[in-house]
Amino acid sequence: MRKILVGTDFSTRSDRAIRRALILAQGLDAELRLVHVVDSDRPERLVDAEAREAEALLRALAETLARTDGVACRFELRFGEAFEGVLAAAAELDADLLVLGPPRRQLLRGVITGTTVERVLRAGERPVLVANGVPAGPYRRILFATDLSPGSARAAAVARALGLDRSASILAVHVFPFAAASLLVRTPLAAGAIEPLRAQERRAAAESLARFLAEVGLVRAHRSVLPGERPVPDLVLEAAQRIRADLFLLATRGRTGFGKLLLGSVAEELLRRAELDLLAVPPDAPVGSA
């Protein structure tokens, strides 16, 4: 990773993103870029006044980070819609990673649709790290939710480029479709008749997960396969709680049908409900070297 871009609106939420980006940049010897977007759909005098103030704040912050924390840091001032400005800066600067603070959940009553974070996740082509938690150091326990798709393989590659496989323990969770579970509802079969089928599918899923992790270079990751008998977000969140994870790793788009584990809706649900950080990787995201 050569260049990390962090969006800021100078709020305490953005402070989390800056501190997390700083920790990553220090570990990777990467350059840090701060970006702030000024809403230009207002009277010109207000736009000019905010731009001057924002530039002064960005300059002071960049100088402080460079001087105090020893990280190369510069800043970008953009105009327009927040999510468009952030995405444009990421593309023009060829950023390897984009770091954002958490959305304003309480103001939106838990709904993130339409926030800058959600719109960046939907429209962006680069890995996005949402810093929900208060940074206290490098990540230690990561939950990698995977559907074994090429998108998940790209997510694993980004994690390796960030050095997460070296600094943290990774639990790879694969929720597999358990077709026989519906028989319990449609037929009078006893649960004991279903269990051998569940065990058989679990073994097959475990073998598939092991092969996948070997292919993506995460052979040291711990593994967990779970039958899809309950909503995927519930299963993934419970697994994260069990290991006290501090980061979710997932692709933004995956397979279709049941296997659409990470196809938009699940990623959004995790962002809506989780209090830990989330690293979301688009299927065609560039993968910088560590």
Structural class: alpha/beta
Strand portion: 15-25%
Q: What is the rounded Rg?
A: 21 Å
> Taking all residues together, what is the mean pLDDT?
86
Strand order of the largest sheet: 3-2-1-4-5-10-9-6-7-8
What does the model show?
By secondary structure, the chain is an alpha/beta fold. It folds into two domains: 1-132, Rossmann fold (3-Layer(aba) Sandwich); 138-290, HUPs (Rossmann fold, 3-Layer(aba) Sandwich), CATH 3.40.50.620. The chain has ten helices and ten strands. It has helices spanning 12-28, 44-69, 82-92, 116-123, 150-161, 164-167, 183-186, 191-215, 232-243, 265-273; strands spanning 3-7, 31-38, 73-79, 97-100, 128-130, 141-145, 169-176, 222-227, 247-251, 277-281. Strands 3-2-1-4-5-10-9-6-7-8 form a ten-stranded mixed beta sheet, with helices on both faces. Helix 3 (82-92) crosses helix 4 (116-123). It is elongated, with a radius of gyration of 21 Å. The N and C termini lie close together (5 Å). Mean pLDDT is 86; it is low at 106-113 and 256-263.
